[in-house]
Amino acid sequence: MSDQQRPSEQPGAAQWAEKALLRKSEGQKDAILNSITASIAFVDVDLRLLWVNVAAAKSVNKSPAEMIGQTCHAFWADPAKPCENCPTVRAFQTKQTEHTFMYTPDGRVRDEKGEPVFDERGDVIGVVETAQDITERVRAEEALRQVSEWLLLATHSGGVGIWDLDVVNNKLTWDDQMFRLYGITPDHFDGAYETWKARVHPEDQERCDAEVQIALRGENEYDTEFRVVRPNGAIRHIRARASMHRDAAGQPARLIGTNYDITERKQAEETLRNSEEKYRKLIENSHDIIYTLTADGVFIFVSPAWTALLGHPANQVAGQPFQQFVHPDDLPGCMVF
Questions:
Q1: Residue 61 and residue 38 in contact, taking contact as beta carbons nearer than 8 Å
Q2: Residue 297 per-residue DSSP state
Q3: C-alpha dihedral sign at 94, 95, 100, 106
């Protein structure tokens, strides 16, 4: 072969190598795009499919070859016209990325996006469509939202406040009910643990702090009662419960719990104690014998006057039938009660 022939052959070899490299690059591109689980397609200005990945074809039970040249809406919407609010159509119109959620007739939800592709003059020559079926995620989010609404309704109806202590960052987060329980507004609460502690009644602060530390060490559950002092000086009784959440290393990460107001219950208990104390003193100081019996005539309680008048120790009478303390001649008359 002469030297004059070689120059004409060299460009052909270079072109062959360039084409081989291009084919390899195209193959790599296809392999990458086909490995993506989201549907990807490239459409021209007439909304005809020029390329689709495997996921897009599988979503309509077709092969990529069967879809090429057809309109995108022929497979995913109405064959006669594009779907309403189509992000691909809007991307051609606005020359910007467009995004929407599409709801299919069978109840599926697709997260769809249209990305315009430009030529060197800045004209849109096509749009890359991407779509992801997010039905399960949407259903899970809806279920979570519903549960959250139920929880919110239950806690608000019951006056329950929810709090979350980030142990690592010393950050305490309150819901709205917590602020109502403590009589403050969010702008008067910086979220620090010490700020909450300062709201606790001075006589309860040391015990409350110790109980939190015990819970953080995992020695006991956090389940306690304490008093808080509101800015107006009012004292409220609070019941608190919480559960510990640990990180991957087993260290305390979060303490999540509830507060609710038990002031009325505490006041009722105090009223009952005062009433019981009042009647106890009345009975103890009475010169009359006061007693209670079961339906079978067995003594449940006798007052101290029993001992003074009859000589029997009152603590030995309880549990005994009343008949043994009545004269036999008087017993028939006593049985009529």
A1: no
A2: S
A3: positive
Q: Are 267 and 282 in contact (CB under 8 A)?
A: no
**Global pTM value:** 0.50
How is residue 256 annotated by DSSP? E
Strands 235-246 and 222-229, sheet pairing = antiparallel
CB neighbours of 173 closer than 8 A, spacing ≥ 6?
163, 164, 165, 166, 191
User: Which residues does 237 contact at the CB level (< 8 Å), separation at least 6?
Assistant: 225, 226, 227, 261, 262, 263, 265, 266
CA distance 149 to 3: 85
Strands of the chain (E only): list them. 39-43, 49-52, 98-103, 109-118, 124-133, 160-166, 171-174, 222-229, 235-246, 252-261, 291-293, 299-302
Longest dimension (CA), the chain: 155
Sheet strand arrangement including 171-174: 171-174, 160-166, 252-261, 235-246, 222-229
Closest CA to 88 of 38, 128, 57: 128
Contact 259, 163 (CB under 8 A): yes
3-state secondary structure of 299: strand
Selection from 29, 20, 27 nearest residue 128 by Cα: 29
How far apart CA 159 and CA 226 sit, in angstroms, is: 17
Q: What are the pLDDT tens digits along the chain (337 aa)?
A: 445 555 555 556 666 666 665 666 666 777 777 777 888 899 999 999 998 888 888 888 899 899 999 888 888 777 788 877 889 999 999 999 999 888 877 778 888 999 999 999 999 999 999 988 888 888 888 787 776 666 666 666 678 899 999 999 999 999 999 999 999 999 999 999 999 999 999 999 999 999 999 999 989 999 999 999 999 999 999 999 999 998 888 889 999 999 999 999 998 888 888 888 887 787 778 888 887 888 888 888 888 888 887 887 877 888 888 887 877 877 777 766 5
